[in-house]
Amino acid sequence: MECQEEKPIIYTMENKPIVTCAGDQGLFTSLYTSLAQQLPREPMEWRRTYGRAPKMIHLEANFVQFKEELLPKEGNKALLTFPFLHIYWTDCCDTEAYKSTVKEDMTRWQTSLRAHASADWVIIVVETNDTKKKNKTNILPRSSIVDKIRSDFCNKQNDRCVVLSDPLKDSSRSQESWNSLLLKLRTLLLMSFTKNLGRFEDDMRTLREKRTQPGWSFCEYFMVQEELAFVFEMLQQFEDALVQYDELDALFTQYVLNFGAGDTANWLGSFCAPVRSWSGLLLRRPIDMEKRDGIQRGEASLLDLRSYLFSRQCTLLIFLLRPWEVTQRALELLHNCVQELRLLEVSVLEGALDCWVFLSCLEVLHRIEGCCDQAQLAANCSHTVGLWAYATDKLKSLGELCGLVSEKGPTSEDLNRTVDLLAGLGDERPETVSSLQSPYKKLKEALSSVEAFERHYLELSHAAMEMYRAIGRLRSARLVGKSLAEFYMRKGDPERAETFLQEALKSYTSEGWSLPVTHTRKQIAECQKLLDRTEDYLQTSALLAGDVNLTTEERKHFCQEILTFAGKSEDQSPKVTLSMAVFSQLTRLQFRPATASVHSGAVLQAELTLRCLMPVSVHIQQLAVSIHFDLERAGTNGRSKGAPRQTNPGTVEFSQANSSAGPESASAAGPPLELDEIQDRSPSDNSLNSTGVVCKNTHLVMRHHDSSSPTDTPNCVSPPTVTVKDGGQMLKVQDVTLEPGNNSITFTAPSGQPGTYTLRQLYATVGQVQFVLPHIYPSVQYEVYSQEPQLTVEPLSEPLLAGLPQMVKFTLLTGHYAVKKGDALQLSNTDTMPILPSASCTARITSPAAELVSESALSIQSSEKVTSISLPATPPYHTLEFHLEVLCIIPHGPDRLANERLTNGEVRHRPRSYSHPDTPMTAIDQRMSIDCPWSIYSTLLALTFYIPFKTKHSLLSAGNRKYIQVCVQNMSDVNFMLAEVKLTEKQHESLELQSLNTKTQQLLCSKHSVFCLWEVSWKDDLPSCLQCVFSANFSPPKQDVSAFKPFHYQFQLERVTTLYSVRAEILPPTGEQHCRSGFLCGLEVCITRLTEPAEGEVAEDSKIDTDGLRTTKLMYEVADSSSNWAVCGKSSGMVLMPMAADATHKVQIEVMPLFAGHLPFPKIKVLKYLPHTAALAIQPDPDSCVENDSLSLLDKVLDDQGDTASIRSRGSVHSVGSGDQQQQQRGVAMPRLEPFTAGQVFNQSYTQQVLVLPATDDHIMEVNAT
Amino acid sequence: MAVCIAVIAKENYPLYIRSLPTQNELKFHYTVHTSLDVVEEKISAAGKSLGDQRELYLGLLYPTEDYKVYGYVTNSKVKFVIVVDSSNTSLRDNEIRSMFRKLHNSFTDVMCNPFHNPGDTIQSKAFDGIVSGMMVQTG
Fold it and tell me: Looking only at Cα atoms, what is the longest distance across chain B?
């Protein structure tokens, strides 16, 4: 290989570490090819100092012939030209030759190496078989030469001499030899690197530490460290190389920052020189030698240094396959450079930096495009888009600076400026001269003419926008679009500008950024004005006039714009319709009356509260609300409306979500659900079929969820399409002035026809402009109704008492009917409830608002059948009220009249008394039938009266004497006076009822009773049945005699006569004076017949004995309910009683007192015993419980036959056959027991007592102490 | 220190935005609004990788020639944006982080106020004070 004699070509990537070769050049040349090929084949691990991670490294070398000049002189820091290894080649095998020439040569070589303190050397001895063969005789063994060399030169460093055997032969021995050589060379090279680079780095660090010394220069240091970077790059350690540049970058940055902080380094002065060239980055060369030289000479400007540094970083990053880091770093660099120039207060021509940034951006982008394919670029837009946008930005400001954006084109001043800027670009670099799209050419062209500028600018803008869109950065895209719009505005193309502005505005409104909204809207207004789009402009103006972000002056301006337009008297042109929302807000609507429901023809007022958003007061010619009228049909579809949802009756508050400044998204939740209850009723019987809840505003709620586009937001620029509905009816107010803020406007609502009126739209007309609120929401309704006349009757005081005059209140709601003079109510008279005529009866007429209108006397005429009440004239929807006194007659007898017919032919409903669950009093419903003038049908009304008394009667006997007691109980809550208490018997003249009552008048307090007693006396026979009528007069206490009203009570007494007298006697045991407890004593029961049998009695239950004596069977029973007595033996029995007066039967029963003391006699019951034949004859009263009792008693007797012998004997007499037959006959014909009625048996010893002594004299007293 | 501090609701409308009065307020509104693009990008990127163990601090959103825009997002997706002047080189990442933490704490206090309606713009003197402190402090 040709050795490189002069300075080696460096600065290309073909750089390799230099290895010098001395000795036999011919030999080396023959081996060079294989050596150069094989050396990098195997990687070698490079262990490094300072804890840096070891690296696998493929070593290459540049083999050059050894020359003394190649050895670095003292102080030379160059690393690239540094020979890392020196090799001496020899194939000498002849001792003589060695001694004579080779050794000498080697010594010289060693001496020069040593002189330069280079210890990285190796001697390679090549041995071939050929040489061996040639000089066989005087040849020393091969090893001896090597040994000699080793002993001569490798002083204890035997590894410095390597043998290579048969290098040109293809044998395993040769290969082995090569491998060991290569390994050795690699090891030695790495050792050399470590040593020399380490030394270099140490020196470099030392130099860096001197940076605070006055003479220190960054540029010098830069060169030193870059040398290291070069070496790393040479070794393909790009990462390490990049680190060197990054360190330099950081060091420089720190100096600039320190400068900013007031710590100035002298060397920094050169970088503060005014910028004269702004040719941008140059990234197409691996190393920009021009700039490097500049740095080396200390003449580089800040931009030069930064450019050079970045170009190197860029190169390395691309080697490292990290192109996206380049773009990111580029953006940082550009921003940083601008800042640094500012910080260092470097004077720069205006626009020069823009040129530099623009060119640099494009250069970086070109460089990246050059090393990536299209797909990669598209996928990594996010990395490049920043540069695109930055370039766009800079070009725009350049265009503005050079007068390329204005409509008129650049002025001469602008042109001069352009020339200056172009001058700073210098000439185009040779690398890009041939390229058509070089950044240099682009900039030059863009600045050359208005058209070219526009083309380039649009191209860049659209590219940036497209990329932003592609990566989803829509906001950024819109911002670029907005900037583009500004450009179009400057160019006088508002049409294009508007599209971009609208898009941007949409984004700001949807996200609620009020300040950008206002700003963009202002720009839009400008566009629209220029475009002469009146309606849009007015709408936008209205929005702006109400925009609180603007100053009052601005708002007034926009408001004036509207008013000026409105003031134009153009009759032909249609009115401009704008959205109400921007002009004023409907905040509240209040109905008066609050029910929002009036009868037809009544006055209903609606008060609207409008918040005017305009900055000045606005005069409105007409404010109108259109109304939708719905004829109300009763029971449509059987649906009933839910309760009104407003908490505040009659007032509707409108939500304020559409305030233009507020966050739009707050209302993004959508309108609140408006729910109503529905009930589906069957049309036939009005029963509930189904019930549910419906959402009334589904269309609004659902729409909001479907579309995320905020087109229907109140902030949208284009006014909502407003269709002015031609409502037939309207609420109107003329000539209103709306002041800024809340205004209250009162409307009078039409209320002619009954039905539902829904407020639909609100219009405000200002000259040519009409503001429309297309939907009033939530919907507001009021109702106009028409009512049928209604008559009600109710008690003036509860409860109505029967038997006394009571006041009832008649209420007539006239509804739509006007009561004329002469109209009368016709009441059908009834006997049970006569209407009492009264002298002064006045009627009150009140208005719907419950105000008294008039008061007039009523005239009441009563005929036999009808009571006619003439009504005073009453206007519709008024209330007429009057009182009448009625009396409900207490029904007193069981005898009822046959059905009567009323005057109108209806069947009279007899009042029937019944017990009312609410009161203990008995109630009577009284029906009234009233004929009203407005209807052909009678009105039926019912009143409930209560009977104040409850009456009971009883028959008392003493032997044959009879008494009748009547008890009157006052059930009502008032006290009464009772007078003229009387008892009469209707049928029997001979009967005399002698009153035993002393008082003529008696107070009967509430909830108390009065008892009255009469003795019955008779002449011949006491009739068995008495029809009695109790009568009394009653009145509330302290009333006039005339106020007493009669009260009757009818009753009937049957079987009055006393048939038997029962007398009991207790006989002490024989020899004792008194009964003793625990000892048996006798009970003698004596039953005496008092009367001759009456006719009915004979037929009923007597039996004629064989001896012709009529007898009847009685059953007696001794029953001690209080367990005072123990009955021993039989307790009941049958007696056969002759049916004649004074017939007596005595029964002896043994009883035992169980306690001492005055014991009442055991109870003795006497019952009629009816044989089964008689039982058949008598139809048993189904209601009689006595029968059941008797049956059960008999059953007991039959089942337990050993108990009562008497019954058994009787039973056997009457039983027709065996027990089976008896069983069969039971229920069909059985003996029955029947009690006597109250008066028929007189018990003489009733409640009589007998003294019973204790059984012994031991008096035991039980004392319980607790 | 900071030239503009903004709090942005989950739905991306501003809850609070304040800039140095000497500067063009509108410009900052645009800047902060645009930064939401990057915030969203970062949130979605973070969401993919880490799940719920998310770093709230988003770091530098994007630099401009004049400003550096930093972002932070709470777990409830409320965003904080701090804009710092580029010439202010003394601010380190840690200081920005601590500013965000302070801001977050104060914001939490605002949310804890029972009279504050979440979703409304922030009108709190205490919060104002914290923000003012961050804007005035010059480092």
Answer: 42
